[in-house]
Specification:
Distance between the termini: 52 Å
Pfam family, one: PriA_C
Number of helices: 18
Helix content: 25-40%
Shape: globular
Subunit structure: Component of the replication restart primosome.
Binding site for Zn(2+) 1: 392, 395, 432, 435
InterPro entries: DEAD/DEAH_box_helicase_dom (IPR011545), Helicase_ATP-bd (IPR014001), Helicase_C-like (IPR001650), P-loop_NTPase (IPR027417), PriA (IPR005259), PriA_3primeBD (IPR041222), PriA_3primeBD_sf (IPR042115), PriA_C (IPR041236)
CATH superfamily of the largest domain: P-loop containing nucleotide triphosphate hydrolases
Low-confidence stretches: 545-551
CATH topology of the largest domain: Rossmann fold
Cofactor: Zn(2+)
């Protein structure tokens, strides 16, 4: 039976999971033609879902009656062609369905509202009052290197030069944010919107404050500056997304999700700390926001700025080959010196009772000296909790997680053993559950234990710990950072959370304890991540040039290591990222690793390792004669999480296009294969994986 006379057939992208086999947009009947990008509600099975009218070359005739579009969001302008192209590319590249990806990146409240309710939200937006008038701020003078970088970006924005992605390579404290502000100013003056991406939610308010201070006078309209991230309430997120989509928000700041913001007048994209692994989504559509930002800018022919003191090796290689333009800021603002890095050789310490591997006697003496001078210090340990594991000296029991192949971490404050993978938490046992021995003790050290030991060793010192455990409740992180900025803290103890982007003006001394683990990781990216983390940590010291000029002791970083002569630490001591990158890229090239090869991981999860391995082995059999290399299935680094066994299989190709061609034919075959492997709970393809 054909459609009723007078109706048109529309293609609508809906959230049909990939494993259902419904990969593309679905056909629906409509009483009238709708512009591609229009939001609609459509029936699918017994549910009614949000859908997007998708661009289609021709009007198909299915030859049978189609379900009709249930409702149209007429009050909302359609998503434009550029946004649809971005979704199409991302869905194809990362092997997801368009509807599934669209559902994940649109504000969740859109899925719940009727057209009438959305129209009411839009009317509410119209009633927002304008900001109070403020005087334009005084802009700081630019250093010569900053001025050159700004000049290059302004030329691209004005269309005077060919557009090429810009890698802003600037040491910590060199004024990269000021370059972003000046580039944004040029784009806003040209009537364009600006998108600024940051890796972590906790950096968004800090950057938002700087952009608001600079542009409040230029953008007094309501919602002219908005943020987009998962920390907002659903209502705030919808409001800010609508402001961006309608063109009212001229400046949008956000985390990785904001790369999909609908911005009809987009004229500049900034990716701050572009090397940060947080830009890669780790579940669902495993997209890289940095890579999509570069693609989106290329598609729109607008400038994109990637900023970092330690660029990702992929971006550095693109700059070396000329695909990206490198803009270098080699010195700190105001002539401030980079902190001196001292590699502290743990092997040289005389063995003595009571000296721990974290708080050595020389480190405590240095912290005390800084304390006496009224200076702040930062002690960096990338392991939260009190201790990694509880241990029984009698029977060698350790506090492993019964549901994961990982240890549960001892948290002393609430007397719990907590698994950081599945969340399983229990009270600390009074005695060894294996042999009944009452003398069970913590081994190793986390930030919680370090905080306690510092308070004992340096009585009177105001010690504050910032990590994922101490900042669980809303507002805690902001309050703790304010205490640091206001000088109410003498020694800050923290994980990588405190090394990223924070402008701590009072910290003069940074100590990294126990960083060696990453040197010998099976993950080929571990050295790159460690170097970036230590450079970022060092960058927190001595950021105030006025203090340096006033005779304060110079900023300094200590790295306590058992491998002082390692090339990574030697490059760190010289602040020599260029040398480090050259060595790492040479290693990667000889080993055939990214950026000289292109990878995808097929992950499988099942109740037994055998079931997961059987699925991966069968998947490998599907690929005979292809121009790709497949490695044997291996367990995940943490093989069992929440009683689920995890296996993975690596696929490698010498060219990106070759890998994509293979994946396009392989993924549909995997959907069919899963039906024969009922024991497999989940499977996923991760294109350009960050960790292996």
């Amino acid at each position: 039976m054909a459609e009723p006379a007078g109706s048109v057939t529309l293609q609508v992208a809906v959230d049909a999971p990939q494993h259902s086999g419904l990969a593309g947009p679905l056909d629906y009947a409509s009483e009238r033609a709708l512009t591609p990008g229009s939001l609609v509600r459509v029936p699918l099975g017994k549910r009614e879902l949000l859908g997007i009218v998708w661009p289609s070359e021709s009007q198909p005739d299915p030859g049978f009656a189609l379900k009709s579009v249930a409702a149209v969001f007429d009050a909302l302008p359609p998503l434009n062609d550029e946004w649809c192209r971005l979704l199409d590319f991302a869905a194809g590249y990362y092997q997801r369905s368009v509807g599934e990806l669209a559902s994940a990146v649109l504000p969740p409240q859109l899925r719940e509202l009727s057209p009438e309710q959305l129209a009411a939200r839009l009317r509410k937006l119209d009633r927002k009052p304008a900001s109070a008038a403020v005087a334009p701020p005084v802009r700081p003078d630019l250093a010569p290197e900053q001025a050159l970088a700004v000049q290059r970006l302004q030329a691209q924005i004005a269309g005077a030069e060919a557009i090429k992605p810009a890698l802003l390579f600037g040491v910590t404290g060199s004024g990269k944010t000021e370059v972003y502000l000046r580039a944004a100013e040029a784009a806003l003056a040209a009537g364009r919107q600006v998108l600024v991406l940051v890796p972590e939610i906790n950096l968004t308010p800090q950057l938002e404050a700087r952009f608001t201070e600079r542009f409040a006078a230029l953008l007094p309209q309501p919602l002219a500056i908005v943020s987009l991230h998962s920390g907002l309430t659903p209502a705030q997120r919808l409001q800010n997304w609508l402001a961006a989509h309608l063109g009212r928000a001229r400046l949008v700041l956000g985390t990785r999700l904001a790369v999909f913001a609908s911005l009809p007048d987009l004229g500049l994209i900034v990716v701050d700390e572009e090397h940060d692994p947080s830009y890669k989504q780790q579940d669902g559509a495993r997209y890289s926001a940095r890579d999509l930002a570069v693609w989106r800018a290329h598609d729109l022919k607008v400038p994109v700025v990637l900023g970092s003191a330690t660029p990702s090796l992929e971006s550095w290689q693109h700059a070396e080959s000329g695909r990206y333009e490198r803009l270098t800021l080699a010195s700190r603002i105001g002539g401030g010196a980079l902190p001196r890095v001292r590699l502290f050789d743990m092997k040289a310490l005389p063995p003595s009772a009571g000296v721990t591997t974290a708080l050595t006697a020389p480190l405590l003496a240095e912290l005390k000296a800084r304390l006496d001078r009224g200076e702040q210090s930062l002690v960096f340990l990338n392991r939260r909790g009190y201790a990694p594991v509880l241990h029984c000296g009698e029977c060698q029991w350790k506090s492993d997680c019964p549901h994961c192949s990982a240890w549960r971490v001892f948290h002393k404050r609430d007397r719990t053993l907590r698994c950081h993978h599945c969340g399983f938490t229990e009270r600390v046992p009074r005695a060894c559950p294996n042999c009944g021995n009452h003398d069970i003790a913590p081994i190793g050290r986390g930030t919680e234990r370090l905080e306690e030991q510092l308070a004992e060793a340096l009585p009177g010192a105001r010690v504050l710990r910032i990590d994922a455990d101490s900042t669980r409740r809303k507002g805690e992180l902001e309050a703790q950072l304010k205490a640091v900025h206001d000088g109410e803290v003498d020694i800050l103890v923290g994980t990588q959370m405190v090394t990223k982007g924070h402008d701590f003006r009072r910290i003069r001394f940074v100590a990294a304890v126990n960083p060696d683990g990453a040197l010998f990781s099976s993950d080929f990216r571990a050295p790159e991540r460690l170097f970036a983390l230590l450079m970022q940590a060092a960058g927190r010291a001595g950021r105030d040039a006025e203090q340096d000029a006033g005779g304060a002791s110079p900023g300094e970083m200590w790295v306590q290591t058992w491998h002082r002569d390692h090339a990574l630490y030697q490059a760190l001591a010289r602040h020599d990222y260029v040398r480090f990158a050259k060595d790492q890229l040479a290693e990667r090239q000889s080993a055939g690793l990214p950026p000289f090869a292109h990878l995808a991981l097929l992950r499988a999860e099942a109740r037994t390792a055998e079931a997961a391995k059987a699925f991966l082995s069968a998947a490998a059999e599907l690929m005979h004669g292809e121009n790709v290399l497949v490695y044997p299935p291996v367990p995940h680094a943490v093989a069992r999480v929440a009683d689920v066994e995890r296996m993975q299989m690596l696929v490698e190709a010498s060219q990106r296009g070759r890998l994509q061609t293979f994946l396009r034919s392989w993924v549909p075959a995997l959907i069919a294969l899963k039906r024969d492997h009922k024991a497999v709970l989940r499977w996923a393809v991760d294109v350009d994986p960050l960790s292996i």
